[in-house]
Amino acid sequence: MTERAGAALVTGASRGIGAAIARALARDGWPVGVNYRSEAERAGGVVDEIERTGGQAVALAGDVADPSTPDQLFEALESRFDRPVLVLVNNAGINRDDLTPSLRDEQWDAVIDTDLTAAFRLTRRALRPMLRARSGRIVNISSVVALRANPGQANYAAAKAGLIALTKTAAVEVARRGVTVNAVAPGWIDTEMTAGVASDLLAAVPARRAGTPEEVASCVRFLASDEASYVTGAVLTVDGGLSA
Length: 244
Ligand SMILES: NC(=O)c1ccc[n+]([C@@H]2O[C@H](COP(=O)([O-])OP(=O)(O)OC[C@H]3O[C@@H](n4cnc5c(N)ncnc54)[C@H](OP(=O)(O)O)[C@@H]3O)[C@@H](O)[C@H]2O)c1
Hints:
Bound molecules: NADP nicotinamide-adenine-dinucleotide phosphate
Number of domains: 1
Oligomer: single chain
């Protein structure tokens, strides 16, 4: 496999969709930064698995909602692999659900800070080396609820819809410089985030099943690849037909 000129950073990669994305990018030859907030052991497990299968990875602690985190993550990853970060996947996300009349300011702020503002700060930081290299891929993990209402998720939907607007705007700003910015909007994916959600909701999914983290990761892997060089500002739904 040809050696990559850059490294890839995946936020929130200690489990679920982020871990699957980290593994998929590593299989494509990217040295990967596996960011996590609290689960050092699980992030270490993802790194071990990548290394066992011949890839390169490093676990990087950091709460993406902290404004100082982007610089720390980029500096650590760049110095570990001695190359610029040329792929950024903004995957870290939380939900704090409640119906709008009951939604507290803390629930609103926590979700906007982690799911939207952090992605903006990381994107801003990532664009510096990418524009310099005239090469880069940013993939933002949005959600189908940005496109189709889901009661109880006003904060989460607003953050994920904002992420699509950020994606499209940044995409057109940098398109001339060889950098693409896209969003993936998963539907119901089987992870800890959706554990305990009533399975009768699956009746609304045309595919009649939840998706897997690997099914999301394969789309991210494509958007990060050379083959996707003319795809930018796009939103790829991975939802078993839910939003069709
Ligand atoms: N699962 C779905 O059905 C679904 C559908 C649509 C979109 N999504 C989106 O896909 C992404 C991944 O979801 P998932 O289902 O894999 O979730 P998950 O299983 O809950 O995993 C979330 C990951 O994000 C990390 N994280 C959370 N807050 C963080 C922070 N402030 N800084 C750094 N890392 C942080 C978590 O690490 P710690 O545990 O260490 O905090 C964990 O590794 C999210 O953006 C989510 O909104 C998921």
